[in-house]
Amino acid sequence: MKTLKMLFGSLLLATLPATVLTVQGQPRPRPYENPSLSFEDRAADLVRRLTLDEKVGLMMDNSRAVPRLGIDEYGWWNEALHGVARFGNATVFPQAIGMAATFDDEAVLRTFTAVSDEGRAKSTDSRRREGKHGKYRCLTYWTPNINIFRDPRWGRGQETYGEDPYLTTRMGLSVVRGLQGPDDSHYAKAYACAKHFAVHSGPEWNRHSFNAADIDAADLWETYLPAFKALVTEGNVKQVMCAYQRYEGKPCCGSDQLLIDILRNKWHYQHYVVSDCGAIDDFYKTGRHETHPDSASASADAILHGTDLECGRSYRSLPDAVRRGLVSESQLDVSLRRLMKARFELGDFDPDSLVEWTQIPLSVVNCQAHRDLALEMARKSMVLLQNKAQTLPLSTGMRGLLVMGASAADSIMQRGNYEGIPYHTVTILDGIRSKTGYPVPFVSTPVLLDRPAAGYVDSLMAVLPPCQTVLFVGGITPQLEGESMRVSHQGFRGGDRTTIELPEVQRLIVKALAEAGKTVVFVNCSGSAMGLSPESQRCAAILQAWYPGEAGGQAVADVLFGDYNPAGRLPVTFYRSDAQLPDYEDYSMKGRTYRFLQEDPLFAFGYGLSYTSFRYGKPIYDAESRTLSVKVKNTGKRDGDEVVQLYVQRLGAQPSAKALRGFQRVHIPKGKTVKVSFPIDEDAVSFFDRASGDVAALNGDYALMTGGSSRAADLQSLNIVW
Fold first, then answer.
1. How do beta strands 519-525 and 614-616 pair?
2. Is the pTM of this model over 0.90?
3. pLDDT tens profile 650-661
């Protein structure tokens, strides 16, 4: 009887409001309300006070409030891919793939510091004015997307940092550090998320049933996992999102190998895992994975594998799963403690006076410094792919210009996907007209036609305004490539592409312009590599502009007219045509990316031109300090940036493909020389070792290569013994 009374008393105390518990007439805070305790202790105390139904309500992305314990609703789902998204006005930076093209991870860090400033300010303002904690208003951002852009047909590749694991790692770490704030801060500024774990890069149309199977171990450890490992072990990323598809037969959100063996046991990940939206439904719904009989068994299995938070509604069946013995309530508590720790660490339960990040004013949103940064990033992302006979830069005073292509005046195109709403966008047409000082004629031609285009092009050329130089703004748009889209145009499927070739109507227009003797400068807007082989023959110059954000039009014009010297580099391979691409659904890296492509691409990874020229000295390796250095001289007539790149290749018994292992974007005034050094540490010479089943720095011979792109012709090499 005494035991029962004690138990009843404890349950009663747990349900009483804080004001009932007093010391000398003053409210006594319960442990979870005490900011002096650790976040872990506070979370543990709070979780033990929750009922089963309350626990389940807190384990879904739209978490329900628990008023009796002072727990507000919370929307875990928020987006900040290249600026605060889906939450009103914000500064819109270039799409992620464009930021990768900067090869400037320090600038990416500054960008995401600005993004988290705006996110904190907007979240604090919303809570204070409206009392809202719902979707897209909180501080758990589901970015960065660090999947490898293995195939240019994947529509979501624009969200990534390209095809290379090392570049993706460097950029991803900058995103995490910019969003989460300094490690020594008591409260987290925000939470970043490494997604989608793992081995995920399309197809979009069958992602809910697709099985990424028979992945070679070398591909897994050298390509698909390095960025995730770095963000977990070096970046202390606070969220990991598991992917939709199956990996080796098991849904990623219920994978022993991915979530338990690798993430928790091998990498010692301590924070929470969130499912992609609706991914738990895929376990049991007809026509999807169908690996589980019902929602309760699927939800229980996801919990047992460490998927703590669900984006979706399947977890509503967890009480039934507990009653059926599929999962214990104590196992739910493990997940709840991780989730509640996150909310405590973000300051969700504490007064603003204690949380330093709540002092960021709303005026920071799209402030002048952030607008300047958006322009800087857009400029740095521009990749000059071709410039025959030094066609560019153009003279601002030249006449006979014509701008063509609907994308020239399309502000929506410039936003990419998972975008915010800019206060103001400078379109490419705006930028050109501002630069020339007069209303350059403009003809809005379509991005694509769902009918034969020859007749349209003939009619267009018959009424073409007088011109000599045509600035053709082409490519595709975020309305054609992206996540799981309802797009049925020829060449596109479900957000992906079935061809990388330029849409027929654009190809025929460029052909007709060239045959008419026009000088064509092609500005390609896309989030992925395009097949531009015919255009490379017909156009005088080609500029890759990506989806460049709110200041993109000014950045394009600055490059076209020479007010900015381009130095962006390709984070993906531009293949010659569809014929160079392997089967899209084959996840083997054979024949993919600069590391495994056996033929010459149209434009190589790491490639990009400048309005000046650079000469590389011979690389020198210092064995004592294990440092490679190279001198680079600007031999042209303009100041400019150069992206100095280091590639490493293991020789001998287990040879590897060459791989990017260092880069530095350096500014070199005309006539000047800079010395660039790279540490050659274990990470630089680590490749997959089949004997150990992991990446390792093996003793033996290695080739070290430095230069301005991944092309063999652009690299100088020396061999070392490790």
1. unpaired
2. yes
3. 999 899 999 999
